[in-house]
Specification:
Helices cover 71% and strands 0% of the residues. By secondary structure, it is mainly α. It has one domain. Helix 2 packs across helix 3. The longest helix has 21 residues. The model has no long low-confidence stretch (mean pLDDT 93).
């Protein structure tokens, strides 16, 4: 199971232009819940290995941070659907390769 590593937290803080550490616990919590939500919608992935998935996790966490989470699914529907299909197709490709 993926963890929100200090590197992931740092990348998110850089993106959000947050230079202090006083919100680290809250940001880590937002990232964890966003990671779980994107995995629930799209399937299993490694946040360290899938840049598109990481982007969606960061965007969802940004929406949550700004109290606008209700708009995330609508605004990112295409990206969520596309990532979910790519993950499923990759999984099927792995299954076929082992046959």
């Amino acid at each position: 199971m993926d963890q929100i590593t200090p590197t992931i937290l740092f990348e998110f803080k850089e993106r959000m232009h947050i230079s202090h550490g006083s919100e680290d616990r809250n940001l880590e919590s937002l990232l964890k819940s966003s990671l779980a939500a994107i995995k629930a919608k799209c399937g299993e992935f490694s946040i360290d290995e899938n840049d598109r998935a990481k982007e969606l996790v960061f965007e969802r966490a940004r929406y949550a941070y700004n109290d606008a989470l209700e708009y995330f699914d609508t605004n990112f529907l295409h990206e969520i659907t596309s990532l979910g299909l790519d993950i499923e197709f990759a999984k099927e490709g792995d299954t076929d390769a082992g046959v």
